Amino acid sequence: MIAEFPRTMVGGISVPRLIIGSNWFLGYSHTSAAQDRFIKSYQTRKSIADILTVFFEHGIDAVMSSPSPLLHEAVQEAQERTGRKAIVIHTPHFRLLPNGTQAPEPEEAFDTCVKLGATFCMPHQCVTDALVDRMYHVIRDLGKYTRMIRERGMIPGLSTHMPETVVLADKMGADVETYIQIYNAAGFLMQVEADWVMRIIRNAKKPVMTIKPLAAGRLLPVVGLAFVWSTIRDQDMVTIGTTTPDEAREVIEISLDLLNRRIPDNELQRTRSKSALEQA
Length: 280
Prior knowledge:
The protein is α/β, with parallel strands linked by helices and 280 residues long.
């Protein structure tokens, strides 16, 4: 029997402590344009559903993504295969100024999230961090957007790359139930040192969904996951993207070992240069 992955509570919803990321589904490699194109050419509805199925079978039923029809279809397929309903965490972006970018209006963005089955709606970093006012220590217009999210029956949160966001939202008593925060041992895309972010997560008033634990492939799974799992609280979560079902199984097994304070016994890479290291 497959063991269920540990869970936590976020905004009254039971959420697995490991969350399925989507960059390796949708083509955001943080490596190169060529790598992005490879991901988009490789991933289909079926291939994504195959990966989701592995996660769902282990009780890991939360998926974080920008609103995506392709991923929505793959989630539906995985739900049909496993009989498990997904918890969808959407990170939409939207227009902040009347003459701003070609992004959708907030109402349209939130309506799309509802249509695609979102339980949590957490404005993307490009929106959230644009609203952070470091001079006056506030997040501008936040209440307007969280109210619109609540009115549509979704649970609001914030996605950010700025460590100030968590501190200011807590100080303001913002109507959010969770935060998305970059956190990895390499400091990749982090604006301050890892020990500062570690302290911010520890002191956050709401559960934190950490992202990029492997620094977009720059860290080995066992290295990146060991750091994050050992330095977050029991109510916090780790979000990780995978490209294949085997990668999904690997990160689940490594994570379970680390959470149970076992040295991971995952299969090692075999190369000719390591032949003398093989145990008899």
